[in-house]
Amino acid sequence: MATLVNVTHGACAEIELDNPPVNVVSRELTGQLRAALRAVGDDEDTRVVILHGAGTRAFCAGSDIAEFDELHEHVAERKLLLEKLVYRQLAKLRVPSIAAVEGYALGGGLELALCCDLRIAGDQARLGLPELKLGVLPGSGGTQRLPRIVGPARAKEIILLGEPLDAATALSIGLVNRVVRAGTALAAAREMAATIAARGPLAVQAAKSLIDQAAERPLDDGLALELDESEKIFSTQDAREGARAFLAKRPPAFRKS
Questions:
Q1: Which controlled-vocabulary keywords does the entry list (predicted)?
Q2: Which residues are 13's β-sheet partners?
Q3: With respect to CATH, is domain 201-248 assigned 1.20.1290.10?
């Protein structure tokens, strides 16, 4: 069995999709990605996860279309249920995630990037959901996550027309957070990850969770939850360390306690 997903552990963990030539999503890759996400999620040293594709041709160019014929009338049980499970696993990581996008992020590849908290794209990247051109749907979260990020009107334009966006357009509508010179997206993601990893890890995880829940809760409920989480965080040693380090003009030494 070929290794299609590579994992690098550490405070800034990395998961690399490595399915040449354009890192397509096959059932085998999805299964390996599930194991990789479990591994970095269970590692207590992990503070940020970077997801990227091998090479610069594609982050991930979408599903393996060669699998489509055998999926006829069985797409849910043979493909989509596992993908939804794994993509949700990525979206629900306890730590922030960053997608470093070079080249194509299409179909299931863009749906993977949408599961990440932040997206950095090289200036030659192309992002889109072209599934309707093949007579199928973006079935691994595209119709649900994309409108939550760019709004329903933009999401309908992207999905119904199926044309890829260039990086500058993706930035202008909030689909990506930053655009950098082609070939440097991973380096930029590593720099961003290092900045996040230096923040208080308990506060980072709480902030990610609160923001994720904000769109699903009434404002008053969200504010109440924010108050509860703030009280928990202020009772930690990390909160004391942050204040002491600030007053002493030194970097904080957070210990997740």
A1: Lyase
A2: 49
A3: no
Tell me the whole-structure pTM to 2 decimals: 0.94
Q: Characterize the bridge pairing of strands 126-128 and 165-166.
A: antiparallel
Catalytically active residues are 111, 131
Confidence band for 190, pLDDT divided at 50, 70 and 90 = very high
Measured between alpha carbons, how far is 148 from 158 in angstroms, rounded to an integer?
A: 13
- Asked if 5-197 and 201-248 have one fold, the answer is no
Listed by start position, the domains of the chain span 5-197, 201-248
Neighbouring C-alpha atoms within 13 Å toward the C-beta of 182 = 13
* HSE value, Cβ hemisphere, 13 Å, CA-based, for 219: 0
Contact 4, 29 (CB under 8 A): yes
Please answer whether residues 168 and 126 qualify as being in contact, where contact means their C-beta atoms are separated by less than 8 angstroms.
no
Tens digit of each residue's pLDDT (9 = 90 or more) over 57-116? 999 998 877 766 665 555 555 677 888 999 999 999 999 999 999 999 999 999 999 999
Which residue reads 């902030």 in tokens? 207
Q: What is the DSSP string of 27-86?
A: HHHHHHHHHHHHHHHH-TT--EEEEEESSSSEEE--B-GGGTGGGTTTHIIIIIHHHHHH
Q: What is the mean pLDDT of the chain?
A: 94
**Kindly report the CA angle at 194 between 223 and 177, in degrees rounded to 5?**
60
pLDDT tens readout for residues 122-158: 999 999 999 999 898 998 899 999 999 999 999 999 9
